[in-house]
Specification:
The chain has 627 residues and is of the alpha/beta class. It has 5 domains: 22-147, Rossmann fold (3-Layer(aba) Sandwich), CATH 3.40.50; 152-275 and 299-330, Rossmann fold (3-Layer(aba) Sandwich), CATH 3.40.50; 340-388; 394-456; 460-627, Histidine kinase-like ATPase, C-terminal domain (Heat Shock Protein 90), CATH 3.30.565.10. 48% of the residues lie in helices and 16% in strands. The protein contains 17 helices and 19 strands. The protein has a 5-stranded parallel sheet with strand order 2-1-3-4-5. A 5-stranded mixed sheet has the order 14-16-17-19-18. Strands 7-6-8-9 form a 4-stranded parallel sheet, with helices on both faces. A hairpin with a 2-residue loop joins β16 (530-538) and β17 (541-547). α2 packs parallel to α9 (273-288), α11 (336-393) crosses α15 (503-520) and α12 packs antiparallel against α13. The radius of gyration is 58 Å and the shape is rod-shaped. The two termini are 107 Å apart.
Length: 627
């Protein structure tokens, strides 16, 4: 297929554009919006904006908008009107509007009077015009629009719901013609309710608001209409007057127009300029699409906006529960829950989870402490059982040690009797009694050591002398070693520092290791059965070693020596070394077992040096504390 020549393509594009323009009325639409007041007045701005938005969204392309203001509330003379009409005639000589919007009665009156002169043939859409403007006659066929209808009764019903105790309504207005025109449409419907006493005030200037309305009783409210000119003749605008009236009044102020909501007004059934402007724009869309204004019925009025200001409810302490259903609450400060409910739920869940976690940790901590206490109690029970076992194994040795002093006591007693019968020397009797006392103390000490070893008691942590404990254990083991044919040797370091521990626990570990060593040498020739107990300093610790000449530790048993219930004895229960390890580790030490190069095995344990002694030694070595 051959390409289209450039000139032909341009012609087609121009034809398409012309067709599109023809579909839209032959040219891009032009819209003139005439306000009867100052174009910067809030009501004019709101309606102008809504008309523009509605038409622009209808798909007519780029629309030419022209906004004009009569400012008729401040300038009302025939000469001014004629000169303005002549000026606009010259201004719009080259512009033919598709629609003229007239906002307010003064604007519609002007447009109807000068339409043929300024905008000949243009359809007209009006807003904010009273229902009696045409005096019962039908509007011209080129005119349609929306009648203004204030809902004074709706505002009175809202007052009754919010403030049931109100008996009087003071209607506040200005003295401009537009102010006076709106007054009957507000006062008469409220009076017809026969519920309120209605009073209207147009004689109060802005500066007199505080004096006139600053101390009203609680059964009274104010109803603001319009005040384009106050009693002193000063020009104003309703939105400027509203905050001044509200701040000066001791009672709530209600209104009938939406443009003052948010300016200190509590609320009302408000004439909504947004809705009216949008409705007028929709009528304009229908006209641009080809409908005749006469085919579009004039609307009676736009729906009222029933709304209240939450800030004013708080100011006058009116409960929000009194607000009737369907009423819009504006400027409401959201509660913490409404604003942060997601975060609040998240934080709440986090707190619940954290609380549950803390509770679980506390329960676990309590259970762990209970388990630790039970473990400690079990360890004490096992240690006690181990000591009883050791005492049982040392029965022969203990009996021998007790029999010796008892036999000596008996011999000395018999000698004393013989001396007394033969009238011996009193000095000899004294020496015999001294021997008896010494042997008695020796027997008592043996019993004390046995009772201490076998007794059930709490473990105490105190400084103990390792060498002294070795001597005590050696005396207990001396006879057992002889009975087994073993020689007990001691190799004790000089000036050994004390260690922190418990005497009985220390003795129990040492006795268990020594008895195991003696038993391990059962098959060793009699001349080689030697058990050696050695002490030595190892830095901040003291090491105690028990060496034997037995069969040593089997290679496969090294890792299981200190496990509970592991034993190589025929009739053992496997708790001795396990108890020793528990006792040593509870004192902050370590225990190990290893084979000697010359045969046999050495079991050694270390305990930390007593702290106070260590600090004292450090001070002596360093020359005392530093300044």
């Amino acid at each position: 297929m051959r390409a289209m020549p450039p000139r032909l393509l341009s012609a087609v594009v121009l034809l398409a554009l012309a067709s599109a323009a023809g579909a839209a009325g032959g040219h891009p639409p032009n819209i003139v919006i005439v306000s009867g007041t100052d174009v910067m007045l809030p009501a004019s701005q709101v309606e102008d904006t809504e008309i523009r938005k509605t038409l622009s969204a209808a798909g007519f392309g780029l629309i030419g908008f022209y906004s004009e203001g009569l400012d008729a509330y401040r300038f009302r003379s025939a000469e001014y009107e004629q000169e303005l009409a002549a000026f606009w005639e010259r201004k719009y000589r080259e512009v033919r509007p598709d629609i003229v919007f007239a906002l307010s009665e003064s604007a519609l009156r002007f447009v109807m009077a000068h339409r043929d002169q300024i905008w000949p043939g243009a359809p007209v859409v009006f807003t904010s015009v009273g229902p009696d403007f045409f005096r019962g006659a039908k509007p011209p066929e080129w005119v349609t629009g929306i009648y203004e209808g204030t809902d004074a009764v709706g505002t009175a019903r809202l007052i009754e719901a919010l403030q049931p105790g109100v008996r009087r309504i003071i209607v506040v207005a200005g003295v401009a013609p537009a102010d006076q025109t709106a007054m009957p449409a507000v006062v008469e419907p409220i009076r017809a309710l026969k519920r309120f006493e209605v009073e209207f005030r147009t004689d109060v200037p802005v500066e007199g608001f505080a004096r006139a309305f600053g101390s009203l009783p609680s059964d009274t409210v104010l109803l603001a209409t319009t005040m384009f000119r106050d009693a002193d003749g000063r020009m104003a605008a309703p939105r400027e007057v509203a905050p001044l009236l509200s701040s000066a009044s001791s009672v709530p102020v209600y209104a009938i127009f939406s443009t003052v909501l948010g300016e200190g007004i509590l609320g009302g059934a408000l004439f909504d300029f947004d809705v009216e402007g949008k409705a007028a724009g929709e009528m304009g869309v229908r006209i641009l699409k080809g409908e005749s204004p006469s085919a579009i019925p004039v609307q009676s009025k736009a729906p009222s906006l029933v709304a209240v200001d939450a800030r004013q409810l708080r100011r006058f302490r009116i409960p929000e529960r009194r607000v009737p259903p369907g009423t819009e609450i504006r400027f409401r400060r959201p509660t913490f829950w409404e604003q942060y409910w997601k975060q609040a739920i998240a934080v709440g869940l986090a707190l619940v989870l954290e609380t549950a976690l803390i509770a679980a940790l506390l329960i676990e901590r309590r259970q762990r402490r209970r388990a630790e206490e039970e473990t400690r109690q079990g360890r004490r029970e096992l240690a006690h059982a181990g000591r009883l076992t050791a005492v049982g194994e040392l029965t022969a040795s203990i009996s021998h040690e007790i029999n010796q002093p008892l036999g000596a006591i008996l011999t000395n007693a018999e000698a004393a009797e013989m001396l007394l019968d033969g009238e011996g020397s009193i000095d000899e009797v004294r020496r015999i009694l001294a021997d008896i006392r010494r042997d008695d103390l020796r027997a008592s000490e043996v019993v004390r050591r046995v009772r201490s070893l076998a007794g059930k008691r709490e473990v105490e942590s105190e400084p103990i002398d390792p060498n002294a404990q070795v001597h005590t254990v050696a005396r207990l083991l001396e006879y057992e070693a002889k009975r087994q044919g073993a020689v007990l040797e001691k190799d004790l370091a000089v000036d050994l520092p004390p260690v922190r521990g418990d005497e009985v626990s220390f003795q129990q570990v040492l006795i268990n290791l020594a008895l195991n060593g003696i038993e391990a040498m059962a098959d060793t020739p009699a001349g080689r059965r030697r058990l050696r107990i050695q002490t030595r300093s190892a830095g901040d610790r003291v090491e105690v070693c028990v060496s034997d000449r037995g069969h040593g530790i089997a290679e496969g048993d090294r890792g299981k020596l200190f496990q509970s219930f592991f034993t190589t004895k025929a009739h053992g229960v496997g708790l001795g070394l396990s108890i020793c390890r528990s006792i040593v580790e509870a004192h902050g030490g370590r225990i190990r077992g290893e084979n000697d190069p010359d045969g046999g095995a050495t079991f050694s344990f270390t305990l930390p040096v007593y702290a106070e002694r260590s600090r004292a030694d450090a001070r002596r070595a360093g020359g005392g504390p530093r300044a």
